[in-house]
């Protein structure tokens, strides 16, 4: 046994000895760092290439990182009876991604990150409308609070609402629709199958938009896009594993670190300093989403203890 192998085994042993909550928190923190780096790289590469082209390579390299898993399972994970719903999720996701990447290319990345926190708020609304989940007063209060936070950031009527802000808000709404579709799929599909089809459909659906705006690029730019795919994959895997390790409400508070990291990246590399309204609005939005998650978890536990179905609460 080599020294390197022994060190890796020792590290794995120490990791397994940690509590699930601590492992989940560590993985969530890792995902925030990876997401923030990816956002910074998208902003950097967008100075040379169109966002649609960047999104294509993000999806292609993301799919490439997924291929070993597909091959190892002999493509068993692709078995499904809900191909149409997977495709619909892919359409929604690719539009949301294109809007988000475009917003990153024209707006301060801290502001984009702050407004992206509205996705759980939109999902709470859709869960009532689409999934028929019970309307609770605290949910509506939290939703109103979340949209108040969005208005604090945008300040309509006081300052001009830029295109990037509208795009990221629309992207958050579409992400919420995608999350609802995921919730429906998860009733019959494994998480691995859902992730696999996401990678495939995003790769396919991003080809035409990329060709529409295609620009030539060099090896250095290709290297940056490989890193975008790498950090995007690390972020997604870390986030998924964090939610698998422990309850979402235990790790959600640490998602706010994304705003801190993106603010630092924006200030250091792009001379973008978030204003106080961005911080206040983001805090209000994030607190609203966290409150919804905590109360839904409590409602779910109460239903389970009372003998009711496990599906009474929301996904998070």
UniProtKB/TrEMBL annotation:
Q: What is the lineage of its organism?
A: Bacteria, Pseudomonadati, Pseudomonadota, Alphaproteobacteria, Rhodobacterales
Query: InterPro entries from the xrefs?
Result: EamA_dom, EmrE-like
What are the residue boundaries of the EamA domain, all occurrences included? 23-154, 163-292
Per its UniProt record, what Pfam families does this chain match?
EamA
What this protein is called in its record is: DMT family transporter
Q: Does the keyword Disulfide bond apply?
A: no
**Membrane-spanning ranges:** 21-42, 54-71, 83-106, 112-131, 138-158, 164-182, 194-215, 221-239, 251-270, 276-294
Localization per record? Membrane
């Amino acid at each position: 046994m080599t020294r390197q192998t022994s060190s890796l085994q020792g590290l794995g042993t120490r990791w397994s000895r940690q509590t699930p909550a601590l492992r989940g928190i560590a993985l969530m923190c890792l995902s925030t760092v990876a997401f923030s780096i990816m956002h910074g790289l998208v902003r950097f590469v967008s100075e040379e290439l169109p966002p649609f082209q960047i999104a294509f390579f993000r999806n292609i390299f993301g799919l490439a990182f997924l291929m070993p898993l597909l091959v190892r399972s002999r493509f068993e994970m692709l078995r499904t009876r809900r191909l149409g719903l997977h495709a619909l999720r892919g359409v929604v996701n690719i539009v949301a991604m294109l809007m988000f990447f475009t917003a990153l290319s024209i707006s301060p990345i801290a502001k984009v990150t702050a407004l992206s926190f509205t996705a759980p708020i939109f999902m709470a609304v859709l869960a009532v409308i689409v999934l028929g989940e019970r309307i609770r007063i605290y949910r509506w209060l939290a939703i109103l609070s979340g949209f108040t936070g969005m208005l604090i950031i945008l300040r309509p009527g006081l300052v001009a609402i830029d295109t990037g802000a509208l795009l990221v808000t629309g992207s958050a709404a579409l992400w919420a629709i995608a999350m609802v579709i995921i919730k429906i799929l998860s009733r019959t599909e494994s998480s691995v199958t859902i992730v696999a089809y996401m990678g495939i459909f995003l790769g396919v659906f991003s080809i035409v938009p990329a060709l529409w705006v295609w620009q030539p690029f060099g090896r250095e730019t290709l290297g940056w896009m490989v890193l975008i795919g790498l950090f995007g994959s690390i972020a997604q895997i870390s986030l998924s594993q964090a939610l698998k390790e422990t309850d979402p409400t235990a790790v959600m508070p640490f998602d706010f670190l994304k705003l801190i990291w993106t603010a630092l990246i924006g200030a250091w590399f792009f001379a973008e300093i978030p204003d106080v309204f961005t911080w206040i609005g983001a805090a209000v939005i994030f607190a609203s989403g966290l409150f919804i998650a905590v109360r839904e978890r409590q409602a779910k536990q109460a239903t389970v203890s009372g003998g009711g179905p496990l599906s009474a609460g929301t996904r998070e």
